[in-house]
Amino acid sequence: MSASLADQACSLAVALGANRPSVAGSPRQTLIHVRPELEALVCDWTQTSPIRLSCSWSPLLETLPEGGPPGQPMFCNAVFLIRGVPGTPGLEAALALLDRLQALEAKYGRDRDREERWGPRSLDLDLLFWGDWRLEHPRLVLPHPRLHLRSFVMEPLLAAMQRSTPWRP
Questions:
Q1: CB of 56 closer than 8 Å to CB of 163
Q2: pLDDT digits (tens, 9 = 90+) for 133-168
Q3: pTM strictly above 0.90
Q4: Is 114 labeled as catalytic in the residue annotation?
Q5: Which residues pair with 77 in a beta bridge?
């Protein structure tokens, strides 16, 4: 299994983060609770059996907030890497996935219309990349434009590329 971004041709990655409680509890409990829902969401979106996809999870990582308003609580972050995504990347499919991710955020209490940019949130799900496909759309840029600048994303992404980590409450 390669730990190179260049070798992720049929892979998709989603970053998870939270630093406010949600309906599931603390930020850590939120990410633990959302994990099976996110796996099911991706399987449904790809219309693929979980057996045909290779899913890998980074460890949960506690990090200081970077940027945004001062005085925020610590974040709990992780990355979900999916290998073997069928089909060719395309705008319609990417926006459909984005809509599903944002609906899952809303289920856990995120209100994008009312929150402060880079402020505290109950759940943040960011699509990081879909293979080597490039997209510049008003709603979505791939690969994520600040991916390489964020250690709180790169560290768990590289960990997920090495092996999947079970999470314990």
A1: yes
A2: 999 999 999 999 988 888 899 999 999 999 999 998
A3: yes
A4: no
A5: 17, 61
